[in-house]
């Protein structure tokens, strides 16, 4: 994209992580580089799966931005600029939560990797609840049912009994289940609290509303009642990734794929626990490139989250929500001008503006903005471990997708970058980074034995 012709890049925040966990499941099942449906490989979700050592906001600020830039590993003509946005912590103790668990118990959920894992995951989730929290469970298949309504968060016997009694059978009427869940959420709404529906399914909706467009309209209409919709995906074979992403994107929640009980615990801790309090709704980013410094740029990922530039200050335009302590990573491949390559001077390459609606205890306040300038000071010949991790994830994602922008990227190069990011003594989330190294190498081996079948789900 020419910075002179199109200096603005506008997008909605997106805290989803589903694509990485789903990709991990596919690779472990034998899929390799270039053998996976590109639509299932969303690089922004891969980037946002990991934890980074980004700076915390200054006192009185809601956001901080950490910028790192270095020579692009796959294109000698470009620089890779990685922007790490961090959300501040909530000012007070986490408010009570009303949690509605919407569980798909249709026949398609009978596999071991679906309902049994879902039940184990739900047990992990409810163990972190408090007495002041409320839990409801709604099931849906051919018929929707309220299994539990408004139970105290510390009533383990009632909650676990309801979860353990779930069984799979019948067709899948997601529309009816969602309608019932929103009704229960309204009836158990906690004023001043966090009100959230967590939908758990394989997305195989075959009765009632089933298209992505219809689901979008349905969930968007319900969004105004003040309830967040988060989505947990399970299973394979008939897994409907696009539908699940649509539900979360338009339900003001986040989307995650669960391939193990450990992943369920990770998702709960980061996105669903009592401390995961929404502090900013409708979060939008607008990056403005200075054409004197930047010749051209390419936003990496976020294809489903780009917005019209004029919607940045359109407070009626929906965007993503971010919880206390959340991190968001956005990366650009940029080509600098001769002036931009100069190492002296303090003119910024770009300015990143963040616009958001304060949420939680500050709901009702006017929309706010913060602006961050990024320039030469962000560039280094050794940009650091977090930059190396982001570069590794991007290369891996492009290789899996068979991207036209892959350039000189190789699996060995991506693995080396990931290894470097995990080797530092103070590396954040080292276990996940080492797992990434193994995953890249396994995907490369799988590609060598590819039998010509593209893995879609």
What does this structure look like?
The chain is of the alpha/beta class and 457 residues long. It folds into 2 domains: 8-15 and 25-91 and 278-448, Gamma-adaptin ear (GAE) domain (Immunoglobulin-like), CATH 2.60.40; 97-272, Rossmann fold (3-Layer(aba) Sandwich). Helices cover 30% and strands 25% of the residues. The chain contains 12 helices and 15 strands. It has helices at 18-28, 43-47, 115-126, 156-164, 174-187, 212-222, 241-250, 261-272, 338-341, 385-401, 411-423, 430-448; strands at 8-12, 63-71, 79-87, 97-104, 134-140, 144-152, 194-201, 228-233, 255-257, 278-289, 294-300, 320-323, 327-336, 350-358, 368-374. The strands form 3 sheets. Strands 6-5-4-7-8-9 form a 6-stranded mixed beta sheet, with helices on both faces. The chain is globular. The model has no long low-confidence stretch (mean pLDDT 90).
Features:
single chain, 457 residues, Immunoglobulin-like, Rossmann fold, 2 domains, six-stranded mixed sheet, five-stranded antiparallel sheet, 12 helices
Itemize the secondary structure elements and their pairings.
Elements (H helix, E strand, L loop, with lengths): L7 E5 L5 H11 L14 H5 L15 E9 L7 E9 L9 E8 L10 H12 L7 E7 L3 E9 L3 H9 L9 H14 L6 E8 L10 H11 L5 E6 L7 H10 L4 E3 L3 H12 L5 E12 L4 E7 L19 E4 L3 E10 L1 H4 L8 E9 L9 E7 L10 H17 L9 H13 L6 H19 L9
Parallel strand pairs: 4-5, 4-7, 7-8, 8-9
Antiparallel strand pairs: 1-10, 2-3, 3-13, 5-6, 10-12, 10-14, 11-13, 14-15
Helix pairs in contact: 3-4, 3-8, 6-7, 10-11, 10-12, 11-12
């Amino acid at each position: 994209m020419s910075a002179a012709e199109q200096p603005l890049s506008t997008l909605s925040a997106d805290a989803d992580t589903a694509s990485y966990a789903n990709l991990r499941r596919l690779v472990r099942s034998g899929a390799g580089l270039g053998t996976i449906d590109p639509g299932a490989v969303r690089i922004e979700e891969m980037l946002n799966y990991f934890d980074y050592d980004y700076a915390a906001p200054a006192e009185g600020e809601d956001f901080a931005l950490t910028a790192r830039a270095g020579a692009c590993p796959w294109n000698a003509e470009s620089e890779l600029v990685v922007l790490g946005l961090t959300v501040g912590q909530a000012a007070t103790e986490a408010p009570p939560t009303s949690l509605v668990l919407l569980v798909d118990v249709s026949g398609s959920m009978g596999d071991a990797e679906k309902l049994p894992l879902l039940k184990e995951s739900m047990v992990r989730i409810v163990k972190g609840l408090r007495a002041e929290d409320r839990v409801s469970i709604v099931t849906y298949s051919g018929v929707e049912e309220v299994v539990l309504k408004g139970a105290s968060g510390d009533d383990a016997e009632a909650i676990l009994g309801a979860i353990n009694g779930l069984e799979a059978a019948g067709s899948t009427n997601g529309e009816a289940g969602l309608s019932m869940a929103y009704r229960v959420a309204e009836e158990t709404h906690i004023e001043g609290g966090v009100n959230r529906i967590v939908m758990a399914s394989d997305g195989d909706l075959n009765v009632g509303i089933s298209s992505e467009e219809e689901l979008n309209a349905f969930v968007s209409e319900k969004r105004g009642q003040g309830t967040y919709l988060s989505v947990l995906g399970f299973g394979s074979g008939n897994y409907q990734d696009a539908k699940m992403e649509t539900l979360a994107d338009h339900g003001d929640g986040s989307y995650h794929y669960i391939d193990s009980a450990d992943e369920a615990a990770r998702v709960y801790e980061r996105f669903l626990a009592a401390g995961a309090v929404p502090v900013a709704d409708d979060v939008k980013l607008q990056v403005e490139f200075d054409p004197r410094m930047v010749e051209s740029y390419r936003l990496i990922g976020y294809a489903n989250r780009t917005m019209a530039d004029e919607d940045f200050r359109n407070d009626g335009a929906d965007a993503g929500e971010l919880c206390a302590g959340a991190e968001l990573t956005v990366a650009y491949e940029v080509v600098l001008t001769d002036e931009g390559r100069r190492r002296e001077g303090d003119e910024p390459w770009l300015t990143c503006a963040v616009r958001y609606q304060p949420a939680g205890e500050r709901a009702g306040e006017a929309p706010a903005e913060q602006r961050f300038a990024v320039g030469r000071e962000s560039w280094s010949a050794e940009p650091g471990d977090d930059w190396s991790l982001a570069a590794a994830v991007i290369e891996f994602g492009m290789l899996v997708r068979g991207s036209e922008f892959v350039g000189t990227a190789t699996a060995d190069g991506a693995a080396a970058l990931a290894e470097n990011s995990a080797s530092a003594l103070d590396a954040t989330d080292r276990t996940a980074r080492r797992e990434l190294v193994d995953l890249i190498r396994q995907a490369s081996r799988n590609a060598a034995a590819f039998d010509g079948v593209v893995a879609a789900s």
